[in-house]
Amino acid sequence: MIVLTRQHRYRARSVLGAWILFGAASTAAYADTQTLAPLQPPPSELYGDLFVAVQTAQIFPDQKTFVDSTPKMAPAQIVQLYEQQKLAPNFSLKAFVNQYFTPPANQTLREHIDWLWPQLTRTTTTAPPYSSLIPMPKPYVVPGGRFREGYYWDTYFTMLGLQEAGREDLVDNMLDNFAYLIDTIGHIPNGNRTYYVSRSQPPFFSYMVELAARKEGGRVYQKYLPQLRREHAYWMQGADSLQPGGAVRNVVMMPDRTVLNRYWDASDTPRDESYLEDVQTAAMVPGRPKNEVYRDLRAAAESGWDFSSRWFGDNQTLTSIRTTSIVPVDLNSLMFHLETTIAIACGEARDFRCVGDYIRQAARRAIGINRYLWNENGYYGDYDWKLGQPRNNPSAAMLYPLFANAAWPDRAYKTARTAETVLLKQGGLATTTFNTTQQWDAPNGWAPLHWIAVQSLRRYGRADLAQQIGTRFLSDVNHVYDTEHKLVEKYVVEGAGTGGGGGGEYPLQDGFGWTNGVTLRLLDLYAPGQ
After folding, report:
1. Which amino acids are annotated as binding site, given as ranges?
2. Dihedrals φ, ψ of 250, to 5°?
3. pLDDT digits (tens, 9 = 90+) for 489-517
4. Can 306 be counted among the known catalytic residues?
5. What pLDDT, on a 0 to 100 scale, did the predictor assign at position 503?
6. Which run of H or of E encompasses 88?
7. CB 441 within 8 A of CB 435
8. Does the pLDDT at position 213 exceed 90?
9. Known catalytic residue at 489
10. What does the pLDDT look like over 364-407, one tens digit per residue?
């Protein structure tokens, strides 16, 4: 114990008094030069019922996030807008908060994505009478923005992030939903809307099964074997009746009797969801039957690349679209993976006749890919089966044969070099080399194509290039997140300033399912501490 003498106590009081006098003088001097703004009431008083609604709805997982957020206009105006809008049939409290508040900047990108998963999750086991929505038995994740339903190929890339976030339950749920759609409809539609049933989308179901099997073991292959086989049968309808040079539905027989696939749609009318745009496009092609134009527009929608110079006869204009005349490199690579996956699943089921059948189909397809979908300019690409010639339009789809492990090693090396030379930009990988104002062309880059590129190049010994592509795209995503606090559907990857992408039939959408999923996986690969 320390005992202070009278002298020590006197000195202590003197020092303390001096500090108090100094502090008072400093405060007085500061007050002479500064005028403090009046304190605002706390958020609970500023926002009233809106505050209660946000906090009880758990719009943010941490209750402190909303109260630390910054309003984008005067609180009274926001409250007035809330009172006007809250009873509207389609009112979304989460969307309202995103529109009128900026969350605190210290929320990391990874934390923001974790927060988004519940916001993008839907449960629609029933649908209102006469609704276009197709119910599904289990919860699922939607892309976001105007995309209020589940989409086929988006879901695989969303699953990548869900698995990274430990949401195996949602991965399994969405796999079960797609198995349900195959069993009840006969295929996985473009999305779970009635107007999407006439077509599918790039067949990633086998990749989804593979993703789950890596965590849960070989029993997953056996569980989904019936649906894998039905998926394959859907894409191969009519193949038995083909003659060389002919096509029916999604299949084309090449001159040497190799059967490859194309994108197609069972309907040849304007798309319900883009009716006016399709009517206007067809009206601009007076010398061609409108039903042909409509089917090519729909087939491009099945490709997921709606729209892109890949499908244009002149590489520039939508009115020259000829999707059904093109054998696409991505689709046939995915079909190769589907066939090899079925062979694996048959092996798990001890059905060795089935194993041999699908291995032979996959081998024939690999030969066809390397015969018809190799461009002598040094990359894998699309083939115009009606003109009997390759398409000279390098695109990020060139990496799909590497992704599916269908590429010959020397050609994989050349393709990687072409991608590096022609497509690699400041913010990642450009979609094509043509700037047509369509969204699946330059200068845009897309999360799913970056994941395919990274995995493809890592598989074939170009981890250095994979890292360049992945980290550049992550920088682009981070830039938009830091400036706008959101993840978006597509990004500009070239030019002076990278940011959210443009072009196409609708404004830029945020959310965004597949960007969230790919970003989490790329963070795990290249920035695990972020």
Report:
1. 146, 153-154, 190, 199-201, 304, 505
2. -90, 5
3. 999 999 755 667 766 665 655 679 999 99
4. yes
5. 66
6. none
7. yes
8. yes
9. yes
10. 999 999 999 999 999 999 999 999 999 999 999 999 999 999 99
pLDDT tops 70 at residue 51: yes
Cβ-based neighbours of 87, under 8 Å, separated by 6 or more: none
Looking at the chain, the whole-number percentage of residues with pLDDT higher than 90 is 81
What does DSSP say about strands 383-384 and 424-425: parallel, antiparallel, or unpaired? unpaired
Amino acid occupying residue 282:
A
What's phi and psi for 432, nearest 5 deg?
-140, -175
Q: Tell which residue, 203, 208, 204, has the closest CA to residue 221.
A: 208
C-alpha to C-alpha distance for 280 and 410, rounded to whole angstroms:
45
* Catalytic hit among 231, 476, 489, 510: 489
How far apart, in whole angstroms, are the C-alpha atoms of residue 243 and residue 202? Answer: 25
Contacts of 234 (CB under 8 A, 6+ apart): 182, 186, 187, 200
At 194, is the secondary structure helix, strand, or coil? helix
- Cα separation of 307 and 441, whole Å? 8
Q: Around Cβ 294, how many Cβ atoms within 10 Å?
A: 20
Tokens of 419: 């991608």
Which two three-digit tokens encode residue 163? 């698995």
* CA distance linking residue 307 with residue 266, whole number of Å: 19
Q: Which residues contact 253 (CB under 8 A, 6 or more apart)?
A: 239, 242, 243, 244, 245, 246, 247, 259
Q: Which of 210, 231, 306, 441 is catalytic?
A: 306
Q: Which residue in this structure is represented by tokens 């020259």?
A: 320
Cα–Cα nearest to 103, from 81, 147, 72, 136: 72
How many Å apart are CA 50 and CA 72, to the nearest integer? 15
H-type helices in 57-151, by residue range? 63-67, 75-85, 93-100, 109-120
Look up the pTM and report it: 0.83
Of 406, 399, 394, residue with least CA distance to 432:
394
Q: Output the known binding site for substrate.
A: 146, 153-154, 190, 199-201, 304, 505
Kind and range of the H or E run holding 489: none
Greatest Cα pair distance in the chain: 113
Over residues 47-60, the mean pLDDT reads: 93
| Exposed/middle/buried for residue 67 (C-beta within 10 Å: 0-12, 13-18, 19+) | middle
